[in-house]
UniProtKB/TrEMBL annotation:
Pathway: Amino-acid biosynthesis; L-arginine biosynthesis; L-arginine from L-ornithine and carbamoyl phosphate: step 2/3. It is an enzyme of class 6 (ligase). InterPro entries: Arginosuc_syn_C (IPR048268), Arginosuc_syn_N (IPR048267), Arginosuc_synth (IPR001518), Arginosuc_synth_CS (IPR018223), Arginosuc_synth_type_1_subfam (IPR023434), AS_cat/multimer_dom_body (IPR024074), Rossmann-like_a/b/a_fold (IPR014729). Residues 178-402 form the Arginosuccinate synthase C-terminal domain. GO terms for biological process: argininosuccinate metabolic process; L-arginine biosynthetic process; urea cycle. GO terms for cellular component: cytoplasm. This is Argininosuccinate synthase. Belongs to the argininosuccinate synthase family. Type 1 subfamily. Transmembrane segments: none annotated. Residues 5-169 form the Arginosuccinate synthase-like N-terminal domain. One of its GO terms (molecular function) is ATP binding. NCBIfam families: argG (TIGR00032), PRK00509.1 (NF001770). Homotetramer.
């Protein structure tokens, strides 16, 4: 009688390698799934490892373009940011990974999908909410929430011992001081020594970016061109023009990485209610978002920008962070993002230097909300200073009443 199949999100690391062996031990045929979202990974070696452990098949899906065009660029369009600091690098990758894993599971006739997310993190929520939206009848096996698994493997050392007994080759050691997750947008670091929020992250932990103190003494300039809020062109300091979305993103990453741009160290609020310390490197996305924000100052209507910031930006980031990408509210917000960005066209001249992103100038050939003669202190232009007297008088009506009421009560403003 044929065994039931499970599609496992596999990384080649210690946790998922042990989960693979454990699922086989439980009597399943396991199909491994790996997503290439731009992480520096030897996929062929990981695939060979999965098959050696006993997987019946292993898929490696290239999702980089999908990741950039469907997730990263819309995040740039609305300046998505979580708790004012986190650019959502991990959150952005989860929808495309989950969607591709479900496609593989359907193709292979799997009754369940499985993952190696911990029972205390956000990713278990992100993946599983996506799975259920994409295939409502799917079964999910989450080993780190099953007592028979987490009681058997109480910590990393137990996994290493199991791997050794099962003949699973692993590169991890018992002294590894943190965990990492990498994709094209960022690299995250958490757990281990980082769980103490007052412990300074070691200088050798950062994988993607040069230490800003050791970055080049000469700044590097480049230009970003946007159409309808989307990055469409990057012109390097040597005059090379890049228009392909993946190549543009890779070049923005390369420029920012060699100048130490995009590092943050934060304590954030996880969706499940716990606080967590995380360190993140988000080089290229930091530059793209910052340039986009700057261009909006030139071309975007004030009230449209305010409404977008207050409602769309905050809620879109929250939806991404909490794993609600495959939801009606996300579809609604993305339509609002597109509507807000139809006039965000232009170019931003940028500079990176020792960890900093600097705007040198911005311009637009199509949008004319900015009028230098009206704003100038050196000429009157079409704007009459006398008109401001009436504007101030109207704005002051309410405040005068407020001041009078305070005075009557003897209260000090």
């Amino acid at each position: 009688m044929a065994k039931e199949k499970v599609c496992l999100a596999y990384s080649g690391g210690l946790d998922t390698s042990c989960i693979l062996a454990w699922l086989i031990e439980k009597g399943y045929d396991v199909v491994c799934f790996m997503a290439d979202v731009g992480q520096e990974e030897d996929f062929e070696a990981a695939k060979a490892k999965a098959l050696k452990i006993g997987a019946v098949a292993c898929y490696v899906e290239d999702l980089r373009r999908e990741f950039i065009e469907e997730l990263c660029f819309p995040a740039v369009q609305c300046n998505a940011i979580y708790e004012n600091v986190y650019l959502l690098g991990t959150s952005l990758a989860r929808p495309v990974i989950a969607r591709s894993q479900i496609k593989v599971a359907q193709k292979e006739g799997c009754v369940a999908v499985s993952h190696g997310c911990t029972g205390k993190g956000n990713d278990q929520v992100r993946f599983e909410l996506a799975f259920y939206a994409l295939q409502p009848t799917i079964k999910v096996i989450a080993p780190w929430r099953l007592p028979e698994f987490y009681e058997r493997f109480a910590g990393r050392n137990d996994l290493l011992d199991y791997a050794e007994k099962a003949g699973i080759p692993v590169s991890s050691t018992k002294s590894k001081p943190w965990s990492m997750d990498e994709n094209l947008a960022h690299c995250s670091y958490e757990a281990g020594i980082l769980e103490d929020p007052d412990v300074t992250a070691p200088s050798d932990m950062w994988k993607l970016t040069v230490d800003p103190l050791k970055a080049p003494d000469t700044p590097e300039d480049f230009t970003l061109v946007f159409e309808k809020g989307l990055p469409k062109k990057l012109i390097t300091s040597k005059g090379k023009t890049i228009t392909d979305s993946v190549e543009l993103f890779l070049e923005a990453n390369a420029i920012a990485r060699r100048h130490g741009v995009g590092r943050i160290d934060i304590v954030e609020n996880r969706f499940i209610g716990l606080k967590s310390r995380g360190c993140y490197e988000t080089p290229g996305l930091t530059c793209l978002r910052s340039a986009h924000i700057d261009l909006e100052g030139l071309v975007l209507d004030r009230e449209v920008r305010a409404l977008r910031d207050q409602f769309v930006t905050f809620n879109y980031a929250k939806i991404l962070y909490n794993g609600l990408y495959f939801s009606p509210e996300r579809e609604f917000l993305e339509e609002s993002i597109v509507a807000s960005q139809k006039n965000v066209n232009g170019q931003v001249r940028c500079r990176v230097y020792k960890g900093s992103f600097i705007v040198l100038g911005r311009s637009s050939e199509t949008e004319k909300l900015y009028d230098a003669s009206e704003s100038s202190m050196d000429e009157i232009g079409a704007f009459s200073p006398e008109a401001t007297t009436g504007f101030i008088a109207v704005q002051a009506i309410r405040l005068k009443k407020y001041g009078e009421a305070k005075a009557e009560k003897g209260e000090r403003l």
